[in-house]
Amino acid sequence: MERELEKLKAVISELKSRFYERDELIEGAICAILTSNHVIIIGPPGTAKSQLANDLCSRITGANYFQWLLTKFTTPEEIFGSISLKGLENDEYRRVTTNKLPESHIAFLDEIFKSSSSILNSLLTVINERIYFNGTEKIYTPLITLFGASNELPTDEDELDALYDRFLVRFVVGYIEEDFRFLKMIQGGDDKNEPTTFSLQELSKLKEKVSRVEIPQAVYKILLRIRKELNAKGISLSDRRYKSSVSLIKARAFINGREMAKEEDVKILENVLWKDPAEIPEIKSTLHSILFGYREQLKELYIQAKEIEAYSKQNWDDEETKIKANIEAQTKLKMLINKVNDLSEELFDRGKSTGEVTEIKSKIEDVQKEILDSLIGTQEAVT
Asked: Quick check: pTM over 0.90?
């Protein structure tokens, strides 16, 4: 394993050991940083939203971090810098952006949807285009990822909806649920170990490697199926969101040490495809069905095979009826095996292991052989 990836894995492990019940958020945040996407976290105060962003940024040496709590009274000066007096002397209207958002690599804006229109308009271009207009000057900002947090979802106002859409990765967090983790949290002391860090230069190398991760056609086909099924359920997303999500799939594959994405990496889209948290259960169910539904199909086919076996072993009134029942069972089992073969071909085309299918097929064939042996024995007894 290369040094940069080793460091990245160490950072992920250390963050997971510190922030309980935040594994998906940590991996999602790392994937966002590796792909220069933004993260929105919805949840009540005291759920370590800003602490996680601060800790994560502190692991990137040389990165500028900006953090602010927004209210309806927050002024542009607080976010983008005060007006330059020297500039005014020269009839220039510009801001001193030192230590402010336009010069940050990672930023955390709490209660982001409470920002005023004057701040919002500038935020949109900074977040999306990485551009800040400082007076007449067009500044390209170094912003990698913006973490936004809020206690509630934005209203249906066009301005807020546009801002909300800029956040590709979305999470809903709550307080710690498991008692044993809660006790670990309140009893835990400071970690004495030196935290793992990596430089901006190393981050740049990591991002380049992520961009080179391959996406097989099977994964693209899965995305097509996801879109079709979600559209049928009334959950429609923009083409831009689907296209951007591909980079996250690459990042998830990379942090798991792979140079080619697998279907399982699509699971990260559980935190991408929803707009309203009420949609999360439906999206998770849809992705699980598409990615792992074949296991339920295999289970159902095997259950049917055992039911056919039980049917064939009934106490029949006469041998002729028993023979007919066994022949019928054979026919049905052949149909089940054909379905298993079709499923095996589908999984092969998707680039997935067919081991589970082979195992179930073997079990059904054993049932088929047992019934066939019984049928032959019955026929010999009749003759």
From this structure: no
